[in-house]
Amino acid sequence: MLDARRASYLVVFVGLVLAGLYALQLGPTVEAISSAVVGVGTLAVMAVGFLVHRPEHRPPWFVLFLGAISFQIGVLARPWATEQSGPASFTADIFSVGGYALAILALLLMLRRQAGLQRHAVVDGVIVALGAGLIAVEFFALPAARLGNRPELVSLLAGLYPLWDIVILLLVVNLGFTTATRLPSFRFLALSLTAVFVGDIGYAIIGARGQLTGSALLDLPFLIAFPLLAAATLHPSMIEMSFIRPRQVQAWSPLRLALILPALATPLVVIVVIHGNESNNLVLALATGGLIGALMFRSVSAVRSNAEIQRGLVFRATHDPLTRLPNRDLLAQHVDEMLQARRQDGIWLLYLDLDGFKLVNDHWGHEVGDLLLVEVSKRLHEITQPFAVLARISGDEFVVADHGPAAQAETMAEKIQAELTKPIELPGIELVTVASIGIAQLTDQRDAESLLRDADLAMYRAKSEGRGRIKVFDAGMRQTVRERVEIELALRQAVQRNQLWLSYQPIVDPLTGRAGGAEALIRWTHPERGPISPVEFIPVAEETGLIDQIGTFVLEESLRQMALWRDEGLLPERFYMSVNASARQLRDHTLRGQIADGLRVYRLGPERLTMEITESILVGDSTQVVDVLNSLRGLGVGLSVDDFGTGYSSLSYLSRFPVTTVKVDRAFVTGLGVDPGDEAIVRAIVAMSTALHLNVIAEGVETTAQRDALIALDVSRCQGWLWGKAVAHDEFAEKHLRVLQDESAWTPPLQQTAGAPQSGVSNN
């Protein structure tokens, strides 16, 4: 690229040298050689540039190359043609006019590819062309056409050459006005066509006096134009000419005014110079009228463009760019207008959130997610028309607002649910959407934001109760939100002030009642409210991201406590700790390093630790989760599935993931000895787990009857109140570890697959 760039400037330099030799008039031989080298060299260089760079948009440059050939043939044929009579005398003009036509076509192709014929640039170009055209017609074309001592066709051609230049001038100006970057190729091309224009003006001057040929110096501009044209094709920037960024509507800058103002002054110049020549009044009037019309059109166009820009800015500020629906701000304006109307039937809002939309983005990408949102917006638009207001206020959340009673809102919500459950066809995939919908009605004169908050609260309540629910707002939800905010603030303080602590529940051998492991459970005692259940604060921790800090605390504290028991001589050889792992932790690739560091610091083997996970995490089948789970098993840490049987229990996912233990949910254990169905489920889980070489733990054991049933089903590990509730570390050590000092009285627990004992933990 660097060589071609330098070569293009070298071509211009050589061309100027040859043009200088031609201008010195050293004789016909030198002039002929200089002219021939310039002509043939230009065509050769253009061919090389075209073949080397191979621009993506080739037609303009190919047409320009053909135009150069046509021009060159016209130059070579002119000496011969001037000596002929009849049609043969016009041979050179035919090729010259063909060259002009091809040059104009090439410029039009460039404009169409790069920026198009932009209205403002065309008008400015017309103003310049009208001014130049008026001069050309009045001083060159008409005088040449009036000459009566030569054939009319000769006079017509002599008058048309300046007009060809005016058209080229119009296109070059338009190209310059509509491109934001002045590339070297464009500059070379513009200079080349300007040189042609200057050369034609010279011939037009002698043509107005009836002469067809003159001094050899008249050909000098054409000799300069050819190497400039060759440089435009050879320079590497010719590739970028197809991708020039178009300019926005431009003000009349000093450079632009330098072209436009002289053009506007041409009628006055013509009047002064040719005053009294009435035969030119029609041309003068047409040109003046055209200039005035162009100016008026430019002014009106500028005003309209400004108005369009303003409308566009307002639209972008008040509408969602993806679905083109009103955004939150515009929705609030519409609702406030509804409030001001003071309708007696009140106002209702539907707050709609797509369930599982994040999974769509994660599995199929944001492009599919955007297509889904657009399709959902179309369906909602069809359902809610013509009177309701529909808005997209964020992500996958939509709001519908209208006048009417609450019953009407519930009917609309049911229609929306029914419509969204219909399959949505997207490229390469078919999806079915489900939405959680909250409804709020406003009959008093509050504001739009309060109504929107109420509908939002109702939607979150619907989502918390399951997928695809509809919930109507009630005042008690505000109290729930206040309590949640209070819990969040207090939980943040608890994390910062180390107010959280762990309790431990034994995991035992049901035959002996001896503890082979413990479940670490997070606990929080509020300084004013007292104990707060994990059922209340764990969801808050997950929503706010505090679960990361809490998870780190539970993991480190569990390992630290086992190390303390070991140092006190209380930790049996095969005793292990089961710790809950949150979904966020299992998507963090640093979890393995964190666990490995903890085990190393506290000098514990990986068989001492089991990470407990939920079924829903496995069903998501996230690549990140799979990678983290595999890395933990590679470390030697056990993996236990909590509450097995209540969710998406499946043999297929148990065989795909590196789990080592399943925990039978307490709901099935409670029915043992009472409900034959529960016993059959537990039996099936045990059989399935045995086939996969997985350990089984039954949780929630509270009676001896349940214990005996589990023993009969070959369940070798249990957990529940029958052997004790979760207690603090000192009480756990006293009740469950010290009794294990007599090794002869202790039966080791079931061995874990891959050599690591397993269990699970729940936050209850």
**What is the global morphology?**
elongated
Task: Report the mean per-residue pLDDT as an integer.
Answer: 79
The fraction of residues assigned to DSSP E strands is 5-15%
Helix content: 55-70%
Kindly report how far apart the N and C termini lie: 71 Å
Number of extended strands? 16
Number of domains: 3
So how many helices?
26
Protein name: EAL domain-containing protein
Pfam families: EAL (PF00563), GGDEF (PF00990)
Organism: Kineosporia babensis
Domain EAL: 484-740
Question: How would you describe this structure to a colleague?
Answer:
The chain is α/β, with parallel strands linked by helices and 764 residues long. The chain folds into three domains: 2-302; 328-474, Alpha-Beta Plaits (2-Layer Sandwich), CATH 3.30.70.270; 485-755, EAL domain (TIM Barrel, Alpha-Beta Barrel), CATH 3.20.20.450. The protein is 59% helix and 12% strand. It is built from 26 helices and 16 strands. The longest helix has 38 residues, at 281-318. The radius of gyration is 43 Å and the shape is elongated. The two termini are 71 Å apart.
